[in-house]
Each structure stands twice: as C-alpha cells, then as structure tokens.
Records
---
Amino acid sequence: MTAQRDELNAVSDTADQRVVPGTERTIPEATVARLAIYLRALTGLAERGIGTVSSDSLATAAGVNSAKLRKDLSHLGSYGVRGVGYDVALLTDQIRSTLGLNENRAVALIGLGHLGQALAGYAGFASRGFRISALIDADPAMVGDRLRGLIIQHVDALEQVVRSENIAIAVIAVPVNAAQDVCDRLVAAGVTSILNFAPTVLNVPSHVDVRKVDLAAELQILSFHDNRKGARQDFAPASVARVGAVGSRLTTTDSMVAAT
Amino acid sequence: MTAQRDELNAVSDTADQRVVPGTERTIPEATVARLAIYLRALTGLAERGIGTVSSDSLATAAGVNSAKLRKDLSHLGSYGVRGVGYDVALLTDQIRSTLGLNENRAVALIGLGHLGQALAGYAGFASRGFRISALIDADPAMVGDRLRGLIIQHVDALEQVVRSENIAIAVIAVPVNAAQDVCDRLVAAGVTSILNFAPTVLNVPSHVDVRKVDLAAELQILSFHDNRKGARQDFAPASVARVGAVGSRLTTTDSMVAAT
DNA sequence: TCGATTTTGTGAATGCCTTCACAAGGGCGT
DNA sequence: ACGCCCTTGTGAAGGCATTCACAAAATCGA
Ligand SMILES: NC(=O)c1ccc[n+]([C@@H]2O[C@H](COP(=O)([O-])OP(=O)(O)OC[C@H]3O[C@@H](n4cnc5c(N)ncnc54)[C@H](O)[C@@H]3O)[C@@H](O)[C@H]2O)c1
Ligand SMILES: NC(=O)c1ccc[n+]([C@@H]2O[C@H](COP(=O)([O-])OP(=O)(O)OC[C@H]3O[C@@H](n4cnc5c(N)ncnc54)[C@H](O)[C@@H]3O)[C@@H](O)[C@H]2O)c1
C-alpha cells in the first residue's frame, strides 16, 4: 500500500550468489521497503543515546511486529546477540550498506513548481543519504536562479547535466503532460531510478526502476475504508470514539507498486 | 516496492455480509489500492472520447496485467460485457461508488509550510473527489491569511473546526516533533483517516486509519535496487543501455505498510 | 438461425509474505 | 563453573495475492 505494491520481477535469481561471502543475498521486496523504516527508528534511538535494542522495542518503534522484524533482519545476516539484542550502531551500518547509502547519492530534481520547490528545500533528503545535485526546469524565467545553493538549469541541458554529474536517481515533479517526455530523456541520459510525482504511468525499459507517489490515490484508499466504517455503524454520533472497527494501516512504499 | 505495504487487519470479517445485495463485499486491500489507478486511467479514456475498453487496454493504461485487472474488477460485481469489454462511464461510477467518492469528501490540512502550501494548491485533490475544507497552522504570522479561498485557522481551534465541518480525513504536514500531538488532537476531534507526511510512526487507536508518505524511504528503496544493478554489472560504461537487469516497479500504496 | 470470434469471469495452481512457536545461543549472577 | 533467563534466528504453517487457463457469454456476419 499502501501502499502501492510491487510487481513483475524479471530477475531469474536462482542460486549462483551463494559463493559471495558478504552482503550478497536476495532480499524480499517487502523487507527492503521496511529497512528504510528501521533505519529511521535506529537513528532516533541513537540520538537518545541508546546503544542496544531488542527486536521487541525496535519493532514497536518502527510500528511492526517483532517476528517480522527479526525475519527481515535475518536476511542481512546475523547481527544480533541472543539474550541481548542488536547493537544500534552496527545494525545501522548494516542497513545503510544494504541500501547502498554508504556515500551520499546524487539526485536530480526536474520541475521546480510548487511541489518541486518544497522538495528542493526538504532537509529529510540530505539527512538520509541523498544529495540533490541538479535542479532542472523548463521555465526561462526560473532558469539561472539560485535555489538552495544550486543554479536552476534549463531542461535543454538535461542530458548534459545528468551525464556530467553521473546521476542515477531522478525525481520528476513536472506537470503530467510533460512527465513521459522528461522521463524518456532521463533514461536516455543514463538515469536508472525514478521517483515520479506526476499522476501518470511512466513507460520505461526494464532496466529502469520507477516508484510513484500518488497523493490522490492515497486519499482515495483512506476514503474507501472510511466509507466502510461509516456504513457499518449506521450513523452513530460523529464524535463517539468507535472501538475495534478496522485495524489501522500505514503505507509502505509498499507505497505499493506496479511494473512495466 | 513500492511502495509500502499493508498489515494487521484486526477485522474478523467472516461471513455475515453475504446477505446484502449491492456493493457490500470484502475487497482485498491490494485491489483497493489499484482501484484508484484504474479510476485515473478511465478518466483519461473518457477524456479521449472512448466509451468502451477491454480489460487488456485498460490494464495497459494502468500499468498492470489484464488477469489482475479482471480479478480486481470482479470484486465489485459483474460490470463487463463478454466479447465487448467495459463501459467506461459505468465502470467509473462503480469504482467511484466503491471508494466512497460519490460526493466530495472534506479534508483538513494541518501545517502550511513549504509542503503544506504546495498541497493546498494541488488541483489533483479537487479533481479526484476531495475538497480541502480547512487549513490549520500554528504560526501566528500565518493565521488569518487567505490561501486558495480559505482562511488559515490557528491550531488552537483545531477541534472546533474539524467538528463543525464534520471532517473525517486529515493531512498532516507539520514538523516531525509536532506530528503526534496534532494527530492526537485530530483523533479526539473525530478524524478517522490520516495521511501523514511527517517521517514518524503515529500512534492511533484501532478505529483510525493512517497512511504515510515517506519520500526518503522511497529514494532509499530505489537506492537499494540501483546498488544491486551497479554491482551486478561491475561498472560497464554508464551510458550503455543495460537490458533485462531488474523489472521496473511502480509504487502502490502499497506504498508499503505497517500497522499499529 | 447459427457458428465464428472475442473477451469476460473465475476455479485452480503457484508463489510470496506473515505469523507462530521453539530450539539454540549467550550473557550474567552466584 | 554452572545454570538461569532472556532474546535471537528460523523451520513450518497459514493466509493473501498473482497468474494461469478455460468455459461461459455475447456480439456479429452470413
Ligand atoms: N503540488 C502538489 O502538492 C502536488 C502533489 C502531488 C502531485 N503533484 C504533481 O507534481 C507535479 C508538479 O506539481 P506542481 O504543483 O509543482 O506544478 P507546478 O505547475 O507548480 O510546477 C510545474 C513545474 O514544472 C516545470 N515544467 C513544465 N514542463 C517542464 C518540462 N518539460 N521540463 C522541466 N520542467 C518543466 C514548470 O516550469 C513548473 O515550474 C504535477 O504533475 C502534479 O500533478 C503535485
Ligand atoms: N518539504 C518537503 O518536501 C517534505 C517532503 C516530505 C516530507 N516532509 C515533511 O512534512 C512536514 C512539513 O515539511 P515542510 O517542509 O513543509 O516544513 P515547514 O517547516 O516548511 O512547515 C511546517 C509548518 O507547520 C507549522 N506547524 C508547526 N507546528 C505546528 C503545530 N503544532 N500545529 C500546526 N502547525 C504547525 C509551521 O508553522 C509551519 O508552517 C515535515 O514533517 C517534513 O519532514 C516535507
């Protein structure tokens, strides 16, 4: 769901990487999505000076159940100590390394309208392993402006900018009718991962990963459940706390997913 | 990947709603998340004057496979015609009704910083069944300002505003350290569905639904796959199109998910 | 009227994810 | 040193979700 969910995995991973000693193993998609959540929970614990956590407390902090957490972590290897728990710093490193966050990753942001400007200023990217390295827009009135220390480049220079900075990840925040075009150019320039805010299905070759964020869809899913709740109670007073109707949910990237 | 996924369903739905004739049936969570996508695809078709679609074309437009689409739609009832396809207008209505979008739903938006202002101006909400009915912030410098036809209210009046407008859905766009507090107040005021942008796990009673949008997590999931791709190719020239490495993905609210 | 053709709706099969439940492992107190 | 107690790591079971594959339905042309 949440989120959107995942699909079509064209990989025929069977059994050939058993030989590798280190971090090479197939990790379930659902697990990957949760690693990011664990990472944030761990950061919070570290800030509070906590050096060790049990699967139970970490699971609570991350909002999942502890069996799931342990199973998830077991895919990375065996980094817990029985009877004790997990070392916060060590586990943090392991997850960061699994997610490929050891050095900051360069990100291009295309489209600096309302949403794009909010994203450009979002501190949560930098603090979680990403560096916005290119700002691109089509509006001549905007090009050349400095925003957060970067100069906005014209979309005509997209390929050149992406190539010269060796950018693999891009965020699309342009109007829906420009999205596929921008996407094609990004892919041609070598981008292999795209986060898409435009409400449209992007067509990409199979080596490119697309995740989308669809806010209206999120609200519609909430609407569905809300609708059900209301129906089931046939109009009890609105302010009465209703108990045990439907378990609450959180998205995961699960915001869920679809494939091409 | 997506997106995140969903969890803990506390409902003990067994077999008591079979009796109801109409739209009452248990619909899988994964299906609900996709209905929103189908709805957008249908809107696009209608705009292009198309009156009928086969499951194949609609599936393509929505980026899923046709068997899945048909199975999904079969949960709503039997609205297709064999040998012909689905009537675009009829199917649109059915999905809208299933999602509870027959009349616009009122939404409160809390936090009008960078992100909140972008959201307040987002046309995609209004066009897809939602009406932002309340803008709320804590900053006195902002309160009283008019934004998109609405006056920004002080957070002290939150309960009053939510109750008087009978708002069931809220969007949280406040800093992370204010999020739980705002959430508690919303719940106390009768809100039962929350879309959360603050990067934190919200604690809510079981009758409240929370979905979260976590942009850093989305990027981290992309980073994971990107990392894998790179490793597997041991540094082929960056601009060469690589074929068949990993199937591309789109989120679903699936944005993955966790439960409380 | 009837058969050819198209496309839906759905049982059955498969696979992925979650949850259970417990044996194995490790620290710590005595 | 030893045994107690706590917590991990993981087989096994159960539940959802996706995909397959085909019979049933409906149109259309002859
Ligand atoms: N505003 C929101 O809160 C919000 C929420 C969810 C999704 N979205 C989606 O995000 C996208 C952007 O939304 P917005 O509100 O920021 O729109 P906006 O109109 O404010 O900004 C769009 C920006 O993209 C630029 N642009 C247009 N064509 C371009 C091109 N070919 N190449 C590069 N830049 C180009 C424009 O110059 C403009 O600066 C839209 O697709 C919208 O549906 C927005
Ligand atoms: N900016 C982004 O692109 C972005 C992206 C993803 C997530 N987020 C998250 O969204 C939230 C908002 O981000 P932002 O960039 O808009 O921050 P911001 O600081 O620009 O805006 C926060 C707003 O919330 C208001 N506020 C603070 N406490 C409040 C309270 N108790 N009640 C009501 N209003 C209150 C502030 O007055 C301010 O207007 C943050 O949690 C951030 O992590 C932001």
---
Amino acid sequence: MAPLPNKRQNLLPSGFISVREILDHKRGVGNLLNVIGVVKDFRAPVPTRRSDWKCEIRLYDNSAEDDSSNSLAINIFRPENEMPNPRLGDVIVLYHAKLQSHAETLSLVTHWTTDIYIYAANQIPRPPEGAKEALRPQPRKTTQSPGQVVHEYVSFLYHCIDKSNLPTEAEFQDMKVKSTIVTEKFKQLKDVRDGIFADVVVQLVKQPYDTGDKITLWVSDFTENDSFFHFVYTGLGAFAGQSADPEGHLATLPFGADPGTGEWKGPFGKRSMQVTCFDPHTTVIRERGLSTGSWVMLRNLQIKYGRNAANLEGFLREDRWASSLKINIVQMDVTDTESPDPHLKEAVRRKREYEREKKDQVQGIFNAAMAGKKRKSDMAEMGLPLSDKPKKKNKNRSKARKRAAEQKSSSVVSTAYSEVKCEYDNKPISTIGDILDPVYIQTDVNGNQVKLQLPFVNVNYRANVRVVNFMPPDLEDFAQPKKLTEYDILSDSEESDIELVSEGEAMVDRATAREWEWRFFLELEDANPPEDDREKKKTLWVAVNNLSAQCLLSLDASDLQQDEKNLEALRQRLFLLWGELEEKKSLEEDRKYQAALANRELNRPPPNSSDDESGSPQKQDVEPSQISNRPFTCCIHQYGVQVPEENPLKADAGEGKRWQRMFGLFGTRIAYN
DNA sequence: GGTTACCGGGGTTACGGT
C-alpha cells in the first residue's frame, strides 16, 4: 500500500501555477510561468527556419485531469543537442516558460531564461519520498533548480494523477514517429481534385458570408481549375443595361468591375472556389476580421463537389482527433518581405500577372472602341498620347532617372528653361485646358448612339507649366513611410501610382518605418496660358510618386524630420523649380493662421490631386499672381484610381467605389550644380 | 531581447451562391 500523501506534498509548491489556471486565463500572455505536469504527448524535434530546432511536449496535471482535452503544450526552441527527450508519463518541471497565444491557442514557449527538468517516470519513488533521484541529466546550463519541496510534489503528482487518459506506450511512440513525417499536402487550386485533402494559400475575393453556424468564403490563388464555376467578365458590355442621362451621357463607365450590382469583382474565369467553414474556424474568421483581400493558408481543406455536383468546393471542418483545438485557417502576412512564404509569393505573383493581363485587355477594348468611334479631331483633344501602354511608363521613367544620374556631374547653363529637363522634348505641348478636357467616346447602347464620358484614359502629355502650389504644406512631409502593398512581397515589385485611398496597404508607423518614399503633389498652371484662359487660369494638381520624385530631385526619400541634410537638399532643388514659392506660401500660411486664429476657423480642405469638383483643393493657398517662379517643361500622365463612393449611381468601379481621374508627373528632372 | 513552429487521419453539421 502506498502511504497517503501528507498535506504539504498535496499542495502545488509556491511559485507554480496549475494547468487549469493557465487555461482559465488567470495569467496574461507574455508572463513567465512555473509549471509542473505529466507528459502525455511529444512531437519530436524538427529543424526550423532559424538555427534552433523545435519540439513540443504536451502536459497535464491533476487540476485538469478530469477532462482529456485540458492539457497544455510547451513549445521548445533550442539547438538540436539541447533538445529534451521525454518519455510517456515523465514529470516535467518548468521554470520561466512564457505564456503565449499562438495559432489562436494558449501555449507555453521557451524563453531565454526557461529551465526544463525531466523526472523519469519509472524512477519516481512513492510519496512521501522525493523524486530527486529520478531527474534526467541536464543537456544545458540552468539558472533555477528544484528543491526538496518540488521533488516531493513530483512524487505525489506522478503517483496520484489519473492516468486513464494517457495513451499506451506503443501509441505514444507511434505519435512521436508520426510527428516527424511531413507529407507535402500543399496544392495550387488548379491541382485540387474531388475527394482529396489539401493545404492551400489563397486570397479571399469576396466578403465572407456568415450564417452564424457556418461561413462561406470565395477564394482564389489565381490559378485556373476547369471544375470551378466560370465567372464571366461582362466588362464594357455591362453598360448596355444602364440608362443614359438626358444629355445622352452615361454618368459612369464600368471599367474592370461590375457596376451597381456589387456582385462579382473578380477574378474572372474559373479561378475561384467556394469554401465552407465550420467551427472552430468560423470564430477565427470573425475574430481576425478576415475580409476581401485577406490572404490565408487553409490546412487540411477537404475538396469535393458541392450539391450541384458541378463545381469543386472546399470544406474546412474541425479536426476531429486533434488533442486540442486546432485551427486550420491562418492569416498570411503579406508585409513580411524579409522571409516571405514561397507559396504566398507565387500566388501574389500570379495575381499581379492576372491583373496586368486584365488591365491590358480592358485598355485594348478602349483603344479599339476609340479608334473605331472617334473622329480625328477628338484624338487631338486628347493631347496626343506619347504612349498609350501603361507598361512603358516605368521604362521611360527609369530611362529618365538613368539619364539624370548620368548628367549629375555635367555643368548646367543657368537659364530659366534649362534648369528643368524633360523627356520627349520633341513632342507637342498640351495646355492645362487640353489635359483637363474629358474624353468621350461614341457608342451604341440599346440601339441608340450615345456620347460616353470616360472616367479617365491612360495618356501621357507634355506641358509648359509653372508650379503655383504644393501639398503637403511642409516640405518635411514630402517623404512618407513606405506604404506596403501585397506586391511588395515580390522581389521585383514595381512603383505604383499614387492613390488617394488605397486598399490593402498596411499603415506604417513613422517611428518604426524602415523605408521612406516621396509622395507629394504640385499644382501647375500654364506657363503661357491661351488667350481664352487668361481671366481664369486653369490649374492642375499632379501627384509625384517615389520614382518620379527621385527623377525630379535626384534624391532618395528619408525621414525628413530627422534628416536635415536631405531636407535642405530638397529645399534647394525645389527652389530651382519654384523659386520663392515655399517662402511665399509659408508667409501666406502664417497670415492665414493668424486670421484663422482670429476667426476660430482652422478647418482646411484635405490634400488632393484630382480634378474632381468635390475633392480638389480648390482653395488657392497662394495667389498665382504673386508667383514669379520659373516656367519649365514636364511630362504628365493621366491615370485612374478607385475611391470610395456611397452613391450607387456614381459607383462605376464596383460596389462602393468610383473611378477618379488623376494626373502624375514623370520623366522630369531638375538640373543642379 | 524574445522569432522560430503548428503530426496524423479521413470527414457530419448546412443546403446558399455563382
């Protein structure tokens, strides 16, 4: 007969916490905890991406023994030769194990200061004798060590705990072996077949549909599977269902998205699969706020035909035999450019290819429509495109930048026009008025010829201008923390046009920003305004993105609040461009500020480079007449961005979105000594 | 100072959406 344990042995030694208390959130994540438990499962060491290896021990104690699911994992990251090798039923004493919430589950993880002691189950004496002799040798140096109180508690715990839920020795060994077998289950959606289970990396392409007990997702990895539903791209044909306004203009033009109905926004073709998720995954989708645009890994996704027996679907169910809650939906980090997941990277690359092809196709449709429908004089109004292929833009800008670098050391003749260089110096000049003129196409809607205003066209121009204003008002803010998009995960990520509101961008904190980019706006007026514009000079806001600004300034962006040298260089270059505009604007700002203080009206319109009536910076912060800065020739391109639009009649870029015409500067360089 | 990682096996609930 085993002697009854005495009272002292019965009590968890002070400084230790029970498994039950941990699972009941009695301690916060991040705390370092001391825990004593019995080994019920072990996943053998596997290499990690770093130099450490990783193994996992699952523990339970007598606070949680009546429920087989109440056990706690300790994740051990250490060099391979310091890995513990516990056996079934061994007692583990942990010091300073960090509590974490990983994969939506509470678990322990080793910390710098964690010590792990293992007592061999078959050597633990019956209480009240302490288990000191059962201690396995330590593979590494420790800072804490168990005393007699702990040794005695180990004996008590091992002999008194309910072991009926422990696996058999054979089962334990089997699980341990299986834990190292990693079969590649990853599949691209193009390769999924009826009846298989697969891991996939996909993007949510539609808002999750939540019925309470289940959530259905539409996902794509931008591969095609013949067994998926075919989403037809209606494209330009979609406006046949819309009505023209009394003047024969359509208010909107669908362009790469479906109008009004807000239904399918792509990808089109057989690239998307429906996935039905059940608990516990639904909870994660809600709590993480997964939504359109989120990239996720779905593990062990069951693939089979849906009820209509025509299209393959995915099913994400709970893991039946998992020893604890197992979450098979994991959000992917598209901002991790350091060590991007290769599957994610490939999927993002395919998405970019898909978007490029779609854009080219849509542009092609426009070009064909315009070539067929427009009179020649209309073409002249467009400002004679220098190139109508958006793809060439970057090449041209790179060339300009390269030339800028080449000419860096060359001497510059200091005349008004020669201090700013521009690409395409043999191309005709457009006026601001030309550039601002909307472009129409004649087309056939339900048998009627209507004149249709395009929301924007991808066209390049050259113009003689001078700068009359700029945004943001402080030069320090001309450089911003680099905004990350999902395409940044690709090593050949390209410059993107400045958008007013962009989706999928991760907000970057100024304090933690590693990379900076130029991002500012210039308001331009004609250097030699046409006669009819003399009374009310037309102006145009152009966005200057990072590449254009590098070309313009021959400077790289940095944190200008810290980098005074770069700020001063920026100020000098811009002086060559706009003379004393900054000083005058600053004086004007001061004057206005004083006036506003007096009037208690400090609200200012937001910065904006569009030509839209509602959104453009209408207020002239500086009177153009006061400006005596230098005229120069520059390249301007027109492009479109999507902006939120609550009015469904105006939402021509899909649900809640409208196309907004924008202008950007490119291929222009300030020469300097 | 505090990341790294998350086995196997064989699938019901629900009935919508393109």
